[in-house]
Amino acid sequence: MAFDGLGTIGQIHVSVTDVDRAVAFYRDVLGIPFLFRVPGQPMAFFDCDGVRLYLGKPETAEFRSNPVLYFRVEDIDEAHIALSDRGVVFSDSPHVVNRTEEAELWMAAFKDPDGKNLVLMAERPVG
Q1: Of 16, 23, 31, 88, which cross-links 83 as Cys (Cβ 3.0–4.6 Å)?
Q2: How many CB atoms lie within 10 A of CB 104?
Q3: Cα–Cα nearest to 14, from 53, 50, 51, 42
Q4: How far apart are CA 99 and CA 55, in angstroms?
Q5: What's the whole-model pTM score?
C-alpha cells in the first residue's frame, strides 16, 4: 500500500504543572468532556470532538509543549459571556480577524491556569 500522507490529528499534548488544577479548568470551566486519568501518572485526557487532548507533566524538557489551541464555537458572544461568568479572563473581546465575501472569522483569546494561550473562534456568514 502506498503512503498517501498523514490523516487527522489523533491527540494533542499540552504541558501542565498541576494536573488536578488543569483538569478542573478544562473539565469544569471550559466544559470539555473528560475521558480518563492514568492512575499513578500525571496525565489526563479529554475528548475534543474526536481529537484527544492530553494534559500532563512532560517527563523531559524535550517534550514540553506550548501550543495555542483554537476552540470552534457556534456563537462566540454566548461562549465569551458563559466563560467570563465562570471566571475566565479574556485578553480581548470577540472581534473580526478576517473577512471574505462569504464569512467573517471572529476570535477571542484567554489563558489556561499555566498561561497557555487558548482562543475561541467562530465563523459568521456575511450578509
Answers
A1: 88
A2: 15
A3: 53
A4: 33
A5: 0.90
> Which residues, listed in sequence order, are joined to residue 14 by a DSSP beta bridge?
55
> Would you state the pLDDT for residue 2?
82
The whole-number mean pLDDT for each consecutive block of 10 residues of the chain, a chain of 127 residues, reads: 85 96 97 96 96 94 92 96 97 97 97 96 92
Task: Tell me if residue 77 falls in helix, strand or coil.
Answer: helix
State residue 3's pLDDT score.
Answer: 84
Residue that has been written with the C-alpha cell 489523533 in this structure? 10
Cα separations in angstroms, 30 against 96, 107, 111: 22, 16, 11
Q: Cα separation of 107 and 77, whole Å? A: 10
Judge residue 20's burial from the number of C-beta atoms within 10 Å of its C-beta, 0-12 exposed, 13-18 middle, 19 or more buried. exposed
Cell of 57: 507533566
